[in-house]
Structures are given as structure tokens and as C-alpha cells.
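Lab notes, practical 5.
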Amino acid sequence: MGYNLRMTLLFLSMLISFLSQTPTEAAPIVYNHICTNTTTLAANSNYQSKRLRLLAYLSSKATSDLEFYNASVGNSIDTVYGLFLCRCDLPAADCQNCVAVATKEIVGYCAEEKVAVAWYSECMLRYSNLYIFSTMASERASSIWSTDTVSEPNRFDELVTATMNGLASCFSNVASGAKKFGTKEANVAASQTYTLVQCTPDLSGYDCNQCLQIAMKNLSGCCAGQSNAFELLSLV
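Output from the prediction step:
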């Protein structure tokens, strides 16, 4: 799967999805990861060392029952910035496990890159050599959907759009730093749908709403009538 990616990672990633039911996987499943191939890191570089320190620190913070955390290591040109975001509707133990797995696996996925993001079933993890906190920009990174379709696709799509619009509008006036997460269930075509939207809390409410609007447009373009889909956004 190929992507046209910019060279800098600026946007605090968000996840938007609509599901037929809440995931119950015993172990976190990686949906996608992206590494930018702009820099090849030496095996023992300062950035490599600081990246490992940052990832270990983020993993330790996930054990403090935190759903979101950002941090940086270093005070020079080799500073590394990173964050994790967990789904707010899952137990703390699932967040801790997901971040622990992600901080170990992302180095394997992106061993030589200074910029990386990985999306899992329970969390998202990213790091960069550029400042990535509290800044909104968006570029489509990935859409994931099943091959299952619903019996009334037009009605289903209308309901999903209306439901997600309602959830997104709730964030418009929410302050930066506040949790930005919402779910809603609805019935259509004799089946139950589950809608989930989430932004990193350090975004402003306005930026979160704008990002969700972009994600909804992407979903309507790629996944009409699909019973399960995810839209992952990031500026890379």
C-alpha cells in the first residue's frame, strides 16, 4: 500500500470509526503504520538513544491510568517528541498493554526513520523530530474497511453521517486539554451500529471538529455502505 506523504509530521493524529460492535480483541492489533523515509539513522546515534528513552517513558506513563500523554527528550537538534492516545471507552489495562506493545513494535517498523506513527485497535502512538503538540493539520493517511455491506446502504450512510456530525459538533467549544471522545449507538436495517470519534485532547475544539469533518468526507468517499470502517488522519 503506497502513500504520498509530506516530509514533516505536524498533525496530532486522530481516529474516527464506525463499528458494528465494540472490539474485544485480547491483544492489540496493528491497523497501519507509517514511517517517513527522509533520514537514515545511524545505529548508535543520539536520536536513536533519545527515541528509546522517550518510548520507555511513554510506556511507563500509560501505567498511570492516562489515556493521553505527550513528552519530549533532548534539548538540541536531536530532540524527539512523542505521544500516545488510547480509546477512552476501554479499560485502563487495555491502554497500558497497547502502549507497551506499540512502543516496542514501532522501532521495528520504523528502525531508521525520525518520524513514525502506528495505529492499533486500542491506541495510537507517534514520534517525530519536529514539534507535533497542539497543532492541527490534516492529510489522509489511510482508510480501512471490511468487505461486508449492509442491506440498506443509503439509509445506513445517512444515519452514520448524521450521527458523526452530531458527535463532532459537541467538540466545537471544548477547550484544549479537555477529553474529546464520543460514541453513539443507533439502529438501522434491523442491526445495531456503533459510532466512535476521537481527537487528541491537546487540540482545540474547533480544530477537532474540523478534522472530524474531513474524516467524514473521506469515509463517505471510500466506504459507502460498508458495515465496518476506520479513517486515520495524519499530516506526514
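Observations recorded by the TA: The first strand starts at residue 14 and ends at 19. Confidence is low (pLDDT under 50) at residues 1-24.
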